[in-house]
Amino acid sequence: MVYLQKYLEDCGCDPDLVQLIRLISRQMEPIRKAFLDNQFYEHTLNASGEVQAALDKWADAHLIKVIGESGYVREIASEEQEDIIRFENSRREYAMVMDPLDGSSLISTNLAVGTIVGIYESGGVMQKGSNLKAACYTLFGPLTVLVVSVGKGVQSFAWDPKSEHYYLLKKSFDIPEGKIYGSGGVYKDYIPAHEKVLSYFDEKGFKVRYSGSFVADCHQLLVYGGIYTYPALKKSPKGKLRLLFEANPLGYIITQAGGAITDGYQSPLDIQPEKVHQRTPIYIGSAGIIKKIEEIYREQ
Ligand code: AHG
Ligand code: MN
Ligand code: MN
Ligand code: MN
């Protein structure tokens, strides 16, 4: 069995980066256990004006406390925090962007949800996704799986509650050109370019796979290929997903697995963020299909 820490050390990662990723990975069990405490199911509204489950807030506060106390991180930007959080006394310059709980509208359905994290080596959180040093997400499914990239492809690790370690499950992913897609939003709100993309999927016999959790709907593409999209909508031209916490970390990982991400015209990884909670339309998945989607948008 190859454990997470050993694998990252063998990749030649900075020891503090190894410890930071390991620390993040070890918060997944406390978060998973919190699901048992059903006081977390009531909802309020967050910085993006969206429904915020109490568990969103708990996971956010827990990660900020643990990561903040570690001294590895100078800044954290979180989906659940209005502003960037700075740690004046940190001894390293890593900067972390996170979606503490993605798919939280599904918690009461027991469908797969997860935590998304992006890590910059220095320079704060307001930088392009293409500058990420590492990114990871967990998926709370039948297994608690950690998917991580430190720029050397993509690996997955499974949490073993007995040994209390993450062991290597898959040491590389190469996204196939698949035929599944999941599209957020509702049909009446779709712009003409997206309608053209959906007719293309139809013509090619694509099947719909959409649960409402970005991290789960994207994870399956690593195995099956295909596309996840939350497109620009008539009423929200920037779509729903957030550039910093969702598009960039998953875009980095999917790209490392030979896939691609686009907003219809360019990769969100090349966008210089201007606002912490800015949104971006996204299509993410098999590289060949992303190329076709950009052709369709260019023809508009
Ligand atoms: P979050 O739970 O972090 O707010 O993210 C929810 C996102 C994403 O996970 C999911 O794909 C999308 O919202 C679902 O939106 P709809 O419910 O509008 O389909
Ligand atoms: Mn949310
Ligand atoms: Mn999310
Ligand atoms: Mn979230």
TrEMBL record:
GO terms for cellular component: cytoplasm. Mg(2+) 1 binds at residues 79, 99, 101. It is an enzyme of class 3 (hydrolase). Homotetramer. Gene3D superfamilies: 3.40.190.80, Fructose-1,6-Bisphosphatase, subunit A, domain 1. Substrate binds at residues 102-105, 210, 240. It comes from Methanospirillum lacunae. Its main location: cytoplasm. Belongs to the FBPase class 1 family. Residues 177-297 form the Fructose-1-6-bisphosphatase class 1 C-terminal domain. Binds 2 magnesium ions per subunit. Coiled coil: none annotated. The gene is fbp. InterPro entries: FBPase_C_dom, FBPase_class-1, FBPase_N, FBPtase, Fructose_bisphosphatase_AS. PROSITE patterns: FBPASE. One of its GO terms (molecular function) is fructose 1,6-bisphosphate 1-phosphatase activity. GO terms for biological process: fructose 1,6-bisphosphate metabolic process; fructose 6-phosphate metabolic process; fructose metabolic process; gluconeogenesis; sucrose biosynthetic process. Its EC number is 3.1.3.11. Keywords: Carbohydrate metabolism, Cytoplasm, Hydrolase, Magnesium, Metal-binding. Its cofactor is Mg(2+). This is Fructose-1,6-bisphosphatase class 1. The lineage of its organism: Archaea, Methanobacteriati, Methanobacteriota, Stenosarchaea group, Methanomicrobia. Mg(2+) 2 binds at residues 99, 102, 246. It catalyses: beta-D-fructose 1,6-bisphosphate + H2O = beta-D-fructose 6-phosphate + phosphate. Residues 31-170 form the Fructose-1-6-bisphosphatase class I N-terminal domain.
